[in-house]
Amino acid sequence: MDLTEKKLRGEQVFSGGFLKVTRDEVELPDGKVATREFIRHPGAVAVLALTDDDRLVMERQYRYPAGREFIEIPAGKIDPAEPPHETARRELLEETGFTASQWRYLGKAWPCIGYADEVIHYYLATGLRQQARQLDEGEFLEVMLLDRDEVQQMALDGTIADSKTIVGLHWLAAWQQGKLPGETV
Amino acid sequence: MDLTEKKLRGEQVFSGGFLKVTRDEVELPDGKVATREFIRHPGAVAVLALTDDDRLVMERQYRYPAGREFIEIPAGKIDPAEPPHETARRELLEETGFTASQWRYLGKAWPCIGYADEVIHYYLATGLRQQARQLDEGEFLEVMLLDRDEVQQMALDGTIADSKTIVGLHWLAAWQQGKLPGETV
C-alpha cells in the first residue's frame, strides 16, 4: 500500500529567533486533504568521543524546554552548506576542546518524526587530544569524562534520558561488538 | 556548577492546529538574559509489543516532515488527564488491534531536548491478543509482525531510523538480558 502524502500547497506560518514552522496541505492516500505542521531544522550531528582509556566525553547541560539537566553526548546543528562530518569536528572542539585523529560514521536517525524534519548524523571519534574549548556566547555546559561501562549503565537506570544520547550509545555498543561497520570518514 | 536557567517572562508566540510554540526570556547562569523558543507537547507513549512467538508489532507509516516512510513501534500522544499507561493501552489497540495481558514500564526519554518539552514513556506489552484496530480519521499505517532479531538488525543497518524506536529496542534488549527491571504496571 502506498502511504505517501503529497504536498498540495504550503507556507511558513511562524518564524521565530530560533524555530521555523511550516504548514502544508497534503493529499492523503485516500485522496482526502489534511494539514501537516512541522519544524524545519537544518539537521544535526552527535559525537561518541572515546578516549584511549575507554572513557566517553559527555556533557552536563541544562535544557530549558524540559526544565532539567541532561547528561548528553556532544552535538550541534549543521551550519548552512557545512558537510556533517565537519560539523562533528567543529562541535566536538568548540564544546569539549577535543580533537580526534580518527572519525567513523555510525548512522543517522530522525529524533522527532511527528513534527520535525531534523535528522541527526552520528560519528565515533577516537585518538582524542585535548585543547581549549570555545563555547558559543551564552552556552553553558560542563564536560565530563566517564567510564564507558558506567555511561552504558546510566542509559538504563534513567540517569541518561536524552534519546539522542541513548541512540548513540546503542550504536557504539553495536560497533564495539562488530555489528556495525562504522565507515571511516 | 549550577547550570539552571530561570524564567523571567514568557508567552505563547504561535498556536497552530497542531503545534504550539512558547518563547521565554531566561536568566542564564552568568546573569545575562537569553531567549528560549520551544514546542509545548503533552507527552507521548511508545509500546514494545512482543508476541508469544517472539515477534514485534511494528508499523510502517509515512512521515510527512521527513518526506519518507518509517518502520516504528506503536506510539501516540497522551490525552489531557490521561495516565500514560492508559495511553499505551489505547494507542496499541487503536493503531494495531492488539490487547495485552501484561504491561511493564521500561523508562522514559526526551526525544528533542533542544526545542521541545516532549517526554516519551516506554512500555513493554506481552500476552497479546488481536482484535480489530480503530484508526483515527486520516491515519494511515500498515501493521507488521516482525521477528525480534530481525527488528534489532534493522535498527543497525539503517532500515529503522526513528530514534523513538531505536531507544525502545535498546531497552527491550536490556530487559531481555535482565539489565532493566521493567516494573509491572
Helix and strand composition category of chain A: alpha+beta
| Beta-strand residue fraction of chain A | 35-45%
Distance between the termini of chain A: 37 Å
The biggest sheet of chain A amounts to: 5 strands, mixed
Unreliable stretches covering 5 or more consecutive residues of chain A: none
Largest interface: A-B, 68 and 68 residues
Q: What's the shape of chain A?
A: globular
Number of beta strands of chain A = 11
Sheet with the most strands: spatial strand order of chain A: 7-4-9-8-11
CATH top level label of the largest domain in chain A: Alpha Beta
CATH arch. level architecture of the largest domain in chain A = Alpha-Beta Complex
Number of separate structural domains of chain A: 2
Taking all Cα atoms into account, the compactness measure Rg of chain A is 18 Å
CATH superfamily of the largest domain in chain A: Nucleoside Triphosphate Pyrophosphohydrolase
